[in-house]
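Re: your question from the hallway

Yes, I did run it. Sequences:
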Amino acid sequence: MSAEINLTLKVWRQAGPSAEGRFVTYEADGISTDASFLEMLDIVNERLIEAGDEPIVFESDCREGICGTCGLMINGQAHGPQKGTATCQLHMRSFSDGDHIVIEPWRATSFPVLRDLAVDRRAMDAIIGAGGYISVNTGAAPDANLTPVPKETADTAFDAAACIGCGACVAACPNSAAQLFTAAKVQHLNLLPQGQAQRWARTEAMVETMEAFFGSCTNHGECEEACPKEIPIDFIAWTNRDYIKAKVKNRKLAG
Amino acid sequence: MLGSLDARIPAGSLDTKWTDHKFSMRLVNPNNKRRFDIIVVGSGLAGASAAASLGELGYRVKVLTYHDSPRRAHSIAAQGGINAAKNYQNDGDSVYRLFYDTIKGGDYRAREANVYRLAEVSVDIIDQATAQGVPFAREYGGLLDNRSFGGAQVSRTFYARGQTGQQLLLGAYSALMRQVAAGTVELHTRSEMLELVMHDGRAVGVVTRDLITGEIVSHSAHAVVLATGGYGNVYFLSTNAKMCNVTAAWRAHRKGALFANPCYTQIHPTCIPASDDFQSKLTLMSESLRNDGRIWVPLAHDDGRAPHEIPDADRDYFLERKYPAFGNLVPRDVASRNAKTVVDEGRGVGPLRNGVYLDFSGAMARDGEAVIRAKYGNLFDMYERITGEDPYTVPMRIYPATHYTMGGLWVDYELMSNVPGLFVMGEANFSDHGANRLGASALMQGLADGYFILPYTIGNYLSDYLGDPALGTSEPVFADAEQAVANEMSRWLSIGGTRSVDHYHRELGKLVWDYIGMARNKTGLEKALSEIPALREEYHRNVRVLGSADTLNQSLEKAGRVADLFELAELMARDALTREESCGGHFREEHQTTDGEAMRDDDNFTHVAAWEWNGEGTPQTRHREELEFENVELTQRSYK
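Structure:
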């Protein structure tokens, strides 16, 4: 059943990329437990605008947990307390009257803060550009049923492909590594028969591009806990294995 | 003034038009392609697929998107699937049948030639996406699986769990990023198009605002391609993503591009009902749920019992009762209107009595919970997260919500608007779905336009300009457009009113939903035509936009978008008022059959209405493109 709760928010405010940031405290009273977390922030922003204060900048788009635009550190947890749930799908019924909630942007050197809670995640696109594709020009594809893919393989590739590119794995990682993101993208393609031709080149290029922008993975496993799509850390293990093989094979392939 | 609208549909029989036309179009040879600049605005299915394909061909492409990454475009949220006439299920599907179903589903208000071409290239899309690694659902033998969808009696829908849109977009996005890395495509994220730049009657570029720094930038090109989505957010509450807007298309309209059939909007039947005033959006549950879920309401008015306490005899499975042949799989407009009817009768369910049940208990008894979980697990989880109710034990509650807009910028057969050099693809154009779109056809159209149609047709236009460099951005037309954007920003910031942009957007949405929603009538539309301008006037006088123009300022971004939605809403009302018939998503209460079905007026309205901008404060002029049906006989749509 819905109820109204009163909250105290400690929100990170930062005027721009090079400005000093600080926490500002806001009272958020009379919030319905049926509201989503972002709707709660919408309400706070409406009240700020009414009072003549600039609203809190936070990003969101689909509000259905699939576009990956939203993403907040809520009480130190990426996307908040509900497992397997993006910030936009988190509802206030997960909180209680009188709660204090600390809201921060993703914290990582490779995700510079743009303003308040919004960060720049372009480094993730660079990882895709390094090899997160199968090279097939438009029109060059054979009939889709020419190559059967065992259902189990397709399903596992799908589990990896479910990544929404939100960056929670980076925010949760003590090293700020984007290893879960990278591994999910690598394995989605490496598992499929269509992805074999570029498997080794892809693995090496994507892992090394990841390392150029982000920290290195040391198997903390925090990423798996934070992932709103619950992508298993197994993909990291498989990617590490592929990476070692790739280092050898790519030298051989190059002659 | 414009002459009559010529869609430039090639002569010849339906099944050879596209093949013949491809041969007759002029080509740009590979060495010359790199001398042409093309701007693609938008990075969804249509934009990403076109930009990637054009880059592969060797054109110099620039992609502009307001997102932080192309992968976030709203195509990502499509759930159910993508149609293609593969006939892998051996159930009698064919290009002609997909064409026929789409024409019929669109209530005979789409162009035959466009729709046939769409059906024709649909099969190539599946091949392309599969080769890119899109993980479509598969059978145990390793081949692709299909399911059925509303408005069709064959299984032709390819799907990737409940996230077909994300998987197809990731395919197109990966192809795009490959071209970005190869240097053929220049990607500008967080760049919002705010002006179309014209020179000598042609589109020669755009002006954008950098959403982080506020910098106003000119981009010139030989051709501009808009792939900027639909305008469903005119309702404020819709299934669209929060940032979806009509601005790019509208700014082009204000520069002379005709806006066609704005009153054709689609209400999706299976969304989660609204729960409160602070609601920021409505969430769609894939239409595929109707394959296994049965829709019902209590027979009695205000039946207060919990669903499991209501025996079968006291339930009304109203779609199965009224449409025995299609049952729960009638097209979206029919399903939506029937839900509205039973809710208006006082038979709605849920705390606000504003929904109908979608019940899986029968399917779970038949197939087992595991099978249902495998098919719809993520949708069930999403429903539970939002409502706090478990759909495995309690029937879902659903109600229609705005989902897609069939109207859009007018384009000819080559996807070019009436403005030379301005092309429009995907949901942003009006061309293929008539008055109602079938499920799983939006992804098909976006990718058909982007992968297989525009990359051919744009060459036919560009070949006239071989050797001409793109106009320099130092030309006065660019400076003027930049100044217009700068003036607009200062105007919003200087109003200093009392209410937020969102406040006015929400108020506008209520008007549009009440008067130009699921059912329209003359009185309501006339009210809309007086109340919308009044609210717009207040908006321009009293909106409060704080902050400055040289930072990330989300209120400022929204201010211009909402202003454009106001103007569009008025045009929607005018279009709906002029179209004195019911067809597809446009239901005029004055025009219905005795049993409440949409009644078309083929003698007077078998045409596209395309509106020409006449300047602020002057109503647009209505132009017509007559629709010729040479292959399909116009009939009263019946799904009984």
